[in-house]
Design brief:
about 180 residues; mainly beta; ten-stranded antiparallel beta sheet
Length: about 180
């Protein structure tokens, strides 16, 4: 079951998405006698409110919160919750191009272990070639902190993305390259 709602105003756009899902899942276990499968259920709830606020003709601030909770029945898989906060800023350079910057903080909390914190920063450039074609280039940095809190537990990495989106009358195609 999914609920999606949005509101577009003169300066503020907002949305709220909610997903309630119950899906079949299978756990595979290797025993002395061979592989065995157990069927179970994965129940998840995902809530995502967000907004975009146009400060002026060129500047827009945006924010999104994502809350996810996953539970399992009849299988021994790890239940977890995940929360994230994303904040963004877009500066419209001219009619066809814009610059953006964004921050994200994410917490992954499995029931059987300590939580993992992730911080991300990215910058990007968008060129709207026509109403149907858009090019995006972005670069970013991600810092992941593992539960044991030692320097060895931290993972840092850079990220570059290039994407081209082409919208046809009824189809939307997207090509993306990540490194």
């Amino acid at each position: 079951l999914a609920l999606e709602t949005s509101r577009t105003g003169e300066r503020i756009d907002s949305f709220f998405n909610a997903v309630f899902a119950s899906e079949l899942t299978t756990e595979t276990e290797l025993l002395d006698s061979g592989l065995t499968d157990e069927d179970g259920t994965r129940d998840s709830i995902i809530l995502t409110p967000g907004f975009a606020y146009r400060i002026d003709e060129r500047n827009t601030l945006s924010g999104t919160i994502n809350l996810e909770d996953v539970n399992y029945s009849d299988v021994d898989l790890t239940e977890y919750s995940e929360e994230s906060l994303q904040l963004g800023w877009r500066y419209q350079l001219n009619e066809s191009s814009s610059f953006s910057a964004g921050l994200e903080y994410r917490v992954y909390d499995p029931d059987d272990d300590d939580e993992t914190d992730t911080n991300s920063l990215n910058i990007g450039y968008r060129w709207q070639m026509s109403q149907a074609t858009r090019y995006d280039i972005s670069a970013g940095y991600t810092d992941v902190e593992r539960p044991d809190d030692s320097e060895d537990s931290r993972r840092r990495r850079g990220r570059e993305d290039c994407a081209c989106a082409r919208r046809l009358q009824r189809t939307h195609a997207r090509w993306q390259h990540c490194r």
